[in-house]
Amino acid sequence: MSTVDHIEALKAKHASLEQAIHHENTRPHPDDDAICSLKKRKLQIKDEIVRLESSTYDRTNTAPRAPRRAQRARRHRADAARHRPASRRANDSARLSSACAG
Length: 102
What we know:
The chain has 102 residues and is mainly alpha-helical. Helix content is 82%, strand content 0%. The protein has helices spanning 3-26, 32-60, 68-82, 86-101. Helix 1 (3-26) runs antiparallel to helix 2 (32-60). The protein is elongated. The termini are far apart.
Protein backbone atom coordinates (compact mmCIF):
# COMPACT_ATOMS: atom_id res chain seq x y z
CA MET A 1 0.00 0.00 0.00
CA SER A 2 1.45 3.35 -1.01
CA THR A 3 1.55 6.30 1.34
CA VAL A 4 -1.19 8.08 -0.60
CA ASP A 5 -3.46 5.02 -0.34
CA HIS A 6 -2.71 4.80 3.37
CA ILE A 7 -3.63 8.48 3.82
CA GLU A 8 -6.90 7.94 1.95
CA ALA A 9 -7.74 4.92 4.14
CA LEU A 10 -7.02 6.98 7.26
CA LYS A 11 -9.25 9.79 5.97
CA ALA A 12 -12.07 7.28 5.45
CA LYS A 13 -11.58 5.97 8.99
CA HIS A 14 -11.55 9.56 10.27
CA ALA A 15 -14.88 10.22 8.54
CA SER A 16 -16.42 7.04 9.94
CA LEU A 17 -15.34 8.05 13.45
CA GLU A 18 -16.93 11.46 12.90
CA GLN A 19 -20.20 9.71 12.00
CA ALA A 20 -19.92 7.45 15.05
CA ILE A 21 -19.40 10.49 17.30
CA HIS A 22 -22.40 12.21 15.72
CA HIS A 23 -24.52 9.07 16.13
CA GLU A 24 -23.54 8.72 19.78
CA ASN A 25 -24.27 12.40 20.46
CA THR A 26 -27.76 12.13 18.95
CA ARG A 27 -28.75 9.21 21.22
CA PRO A 28 -31.13 10.03 24.08
CA HIS A 29 -28.45 9.20 26.67
CA PRO A 30 -25.02 9.50 25.02
CA ASP A 31 -22.16 7.56 26.59
CA ASP A 32 -19.54 10.17 27.49
CA ASP A 33 -16.77 7.58 27.81
CA ALA A 34 -17.49 6.20 24.35
CA ILE A 35 -17.54 9.71 22.87
CA CYS A 36 -14.25 10.51 24.59
CA SER A 37 -12.54 7.37 23.26
CA LEU A 38 -13.92 7.99 19.74
CA LYS A 39 -12.64 11.56 19.81
CA LYS A 40 -9.20 10.43 21.02
CA ARG A 41 -8.99 7.83 18.26
CA LYS A 42 -10.14 10.42 15.70
CA LEU A 43 -7.44 12.83 16.89
CA GLN A 44 -4.77 10.11 16.69
CA ILE A 45 -5.79 9.35 13.12
CA LYS A 46 -5.74 13.05 12.24
CA ASP A 47 -2.22 13.37 13.68
CA GLU A 48 -1.13 10.35 11.63
CA ILE A 49 -2.63 11.87 8.48
CA VAL A 50 -0.80 15.15 9.07
CA ARG A 51 2.47 13.33 9.76
CA LEU A 52 2.19 11.23 6.61
CA GLU A 53 1.17 14.19 4.46
CA SER A 54 4.08 16.27 5.71
CA SER A 55 6.57 13.45 5.12
CA THR A 56 5.16 12.90 1.62
CA TYR A 57 5.38 16.63 0.96
CA ASP A 58 8.98 16.76 2.23
CA ARG A 59 10.06 13.90 -0.03
CA THR A 60 8.34 15.17 -3.17
CA ASN A 61 9.10 18.86 -2.81
CA THR A 62 12.72 18.93 -1.83
CA ALA A 63 14.77 21.41 -3.76
CA PRO A 64 17.35 19.92 -6.07
CA ARG A 65 20.93 20.20 -4.96
CA ALA A 66 22.96 23.01 -6.41
CA PRO A 67 25.40 21.99 -9.14
CA ARG A 68 28.90 21.24 -7.94
CA ARG A 69 30.23 24.37 -9.60
CA ALA A 70 27.90 26.55 -7.52
CA GLN A 71 28.81 24.65 -4.37
CA ARG A 72 32.52 25.19 -5.04
CA ALA A 73 31.94 28.90 -5.72
CA ARG A 74 30.11 29.34 -2.41
CA ARG A 75 32.82 27.47 -0.55
CA HIS A 76 35.50 29.59 -2.26
CA ARG A 77 33.74 32.84 -1.30
CA ALA A 78 33.42 31.66 2.30
CA ASP A 79 37.10 30.69 2.43
CA ALA A 80 38.11 34.01 0.90
CA ALA A 81 36.07 35.91 3.47
CA ARG A 82 37.70 33.95 6.31
CA HIS A 83 41.21 34.68 5.06
CA ARG A 84 40.78 38.43 4.54
CA PRO A 85 43.09 40.68 6.51
CA ALA A 86 41.70 41.63 9.91
CA SER A 87 41.43 45.33 9.03
CA ARG A 88 39.32 44.54 5.97
CA ARG A 89 37.07 42.20 7.99
CA ALA A 90 36.55 45.00 10.53
CA ASN A 91 35.57 47.43 7.75
CA ASP A 92 33.15 44.85 6.33
CA SER A 93 31.48 44.26 9.69
CA ALA A 94 31.27 48.02 10.38
CA ARG A 95 29.68 48.59 6.98
CA LEU A 96 27.24 45.76 7.59
CA SER A 97 26.22 46.99 11.05
CA SER A 98 25.69 50.56 9.79
CA ALA A 99 23.60 49.29 6.88
CA CYS A 100 21.45 47.18 9.20
CA ALA A 101 21.03 50.00 11.74
CA GLY A 102 19.89 52.70 9.37
